[in-house]
Design a protein that fits this description.
- The complex is a heterodimer of chains A (113) and B (115).
- Chain A has 113 residues and is mostly beta strands.
- In chain A, 0% of the residues lie in helices and 58% in strands.
- In chain A, a hairpin with a 5-residue loop joins strand 4 and strand 5.
- The termini of chain A are far apart.
- Chain B is mainly beta and 115 residues long.
- In chain B, the strands form three sheets. In chain B, strands 2, 5, 6, 10, 11 and 12 form a six-stranded mixed beta sheet that branches. Chain B has a four-stranded antiparallel beta sheet with strand order 3-9-8-7, with no helix packed on it.
- Chain B is globular and about 45 Å long.
- Classes of the chains: A mainly beta (113), B mainly beta (115).
- Chains A and B meet through strand 4, strand 5, strand 9 and strand 10 of A and strand 5, strand 6 and strand 11 of B.
């Protein structure tokens, strides 16, 4: 079966520290992968998406970056966190077939202090 | 302009009653898909239902149905026989063929089911 793993679940980081969030997908190959951020009480904002290894598209210019070193691995990074980076980060992949929904990981709640 | 509009920030419903959550969308792409997701307090996003722009019938999944009115660009979610566990945030989303199938989400509606 197809599953998506995201970690860590919770993270408290000081301003200026680096960040690395990891997302992996099992049971599928060459998935379309997405990173979303959800601010408190808000909708989902698309940060990055990837259609293949090494292929990253950025939707929102900021101090975050993403990488896809392997087919089923998607990493969100920052060299220096800002207070405004706090939020709930969700990784997602698009299922195969037109009618398949997007499956989300369990999310990472990031608090920058 | 917002592609997905959810005008109800919060909704309340009595247990066992039906509730409709509104969603309107904006697109000029003839090929698109509409989704509804549920987000309980734990944060996970749970896929509920999908409607394709060419689908002739309204989608249904158990207690969930999607009232698709294409001319009005409306895709309301109907939850029948509400349960306490339905209390959550609900997000409407759309993906367009011309938009590389990347889903765009609305701001969500908070649903609270009262016993």
């Amino acid at each position: 079966s197809q599953t998506i793993h995201q970690w860590p679940a919770t993270l408290v980081q000081p301003v200026g520290s680096p960040l690395s969030l990891e997302c992996t997908v099992e049971g599928t190959s060459n998935p379309n992968l997405y990173w979303y951020r959800q601010a408190a009480g808000r909708g989902l904002q698309l940060l990055f998406y990837s259609v293949g290894i090494g292929q990253i598209s950025s939707e929102v210019p900021q101090n975050l970056s993403a990488s896809r070193p392997q087919d089923r691995q998607f990493i969100l990074s920052s060299k220096k966190l800002l207070l405004s980076d706090s939020g709930f980060y969700l990784c997602a992949w698009r299922g195969t077939g037109l009618h398949y929904g997007y499956t989300f990981g369990s999310g990472t709640r990031l608090t920058v202090v | 302009a917002q592609k997905i509009t959810q005008t109800q920030p919060g909704m309340f419903v009595q247990e066992k009653e039906a509730v409709t959550l509104d969603c309107t969308y904006d697109t000029s792409d003839p090929s698109y898909g509409l989704f509804w997701y549920k987000q309980p307090s734990s944060g996970e996003m749970i896929f509920l239902i999908y409607q394709g722009s060419y689908d002739q019938q309204n989608a249904t999944e158990g207690r969930y149905s999607l009232n698709f009115q294409k001319a009005r660009k409306s895709a309301n979610l109907v939850i029948s026989a509400s349960q306490l566990g339905d209390s959550a945030m609900y997000f409407c989303a759309m993906r367009e063929k011309g938009g590389s199938y990347i889903p765009t989400f609305g701001r969500g509606t908070s649903l609270i089911v009262h016993p």
